[in-house]
TrEMBL record:
Keywords: Sigma factor, Transcription, Transcription regulation. NCBIfam families: sigma70-ECF. Coiled coil: none annotated. Residues 33-97 form the RNA polymerase sigma-70 region domain. InterPro entries: RNA_pol_sigma-70-like (IPR039425), RNA_pol_sigma-70_dom (IPR014284), RNA_pol_sigma70_r2 (IPR007627), RNA_pol_sigma70_r4_t2 (IPR013249), RNA_pol_sigma_r2 (IPR013325), RNA_pol_sigma_r3/r4-like (IPR013324), WH-like_DNA-bd_sf (IPR036388). Residues 134-186 form the RNA polymerase sigma factor 70 region 4 type domain. One of its GO terms (molecular function) is DNA binding. This is RNA polymerase sigma-70 factor, ECF subfamily. One of its GO terms (biological process) is DNA-templated transcription initiation.
Length: 197
């Protein structure tokens, strides 16, 4: 059983090196940033807005703006936090304005996973994943939008507290408080659901 693994993200030094290359008009570095982060941004974006097309369009918009402004790019402390915050802002602006963006690219860019698993294995795995996702969604539904974002960034994107603070534009203590409250709510929801079952 072999799987093709796509590397997401990278160390901050790698990110900064790519960022600098993009500023120098290096198309390969730009493509690498897109490959590394498009799925991360997509997953994060869906946590903010369930409209897949809008999220994809906002990600495309971000990358087009990035390339258009490549010569005047300033270097962020964290490329990942900068990208998450930028896409978040674009999504919130689009949702608030009710503006429908024109679809520029096919969604196939966002889904590139191949495996050598049998049909039965894939079916069983997908059912298990679906069950876990439903349970997790029930827990997450107990949270505020802000708490959900913090949980997603911390546990699904492995963002540091500092990166979360920069992404959401809130102080570090607020990040810690939101995460603490979110985990407490999720534990309480888990206990209640266990009693019902």
């Amino acid at each position: 059983m072999q799987a093709t693994h796509v590397r997401y993200g990278g160390t901050n030094e790698e990110e900064i090196a790519l960022w600098r290359q993009v500023a120098k008009e290096n198309q390969a570095a730009y493509a690498s940033l897109f490959k590394r982060y498009s799925q991360i941004l997509y997953g994060y974006g869906l946590g903010i807005c369930p409209d897949e097309t809008l999220v994809e369009d906002c990600i495309q918009e971000f990358f087009m703006r990035l390339w258009a402004r490549r010569k005047s790019l300033s270097e962020p402390r964290s490329v990942k936090a900068y990208m998450l915050a930028s896409v978040r802002r674009l999504i919130l602006e689009a949702v608030e304005s009710g503006h429908k963006r024109t679809r520029r690219y096919q969604s196939s860019y966002f889904y590139t996973t191949t495996t050598d698993l049998s049909y039965e294995q894939l079916l069983i795995e997908s059912q298990l994943v679906e069950q876990r996702n439903q349970m997790l969604q029930q827990y997450l539904d107990q949270l505020t939008n802000r708490q959900r974002e913090v949980v997603y960034l911390r546990f699904f994107q492995n963002s540091s507290f500092k990166e979360i603070s920069e992404t959401l534009n809130i102080d570090l203590q607020s990040v810690r408080n939101l995460l603490c409250r979110a985990l407490k709510k999720m534990r309480e929801a888990s206990a209640v659901m266990a009693e019902v079952a």
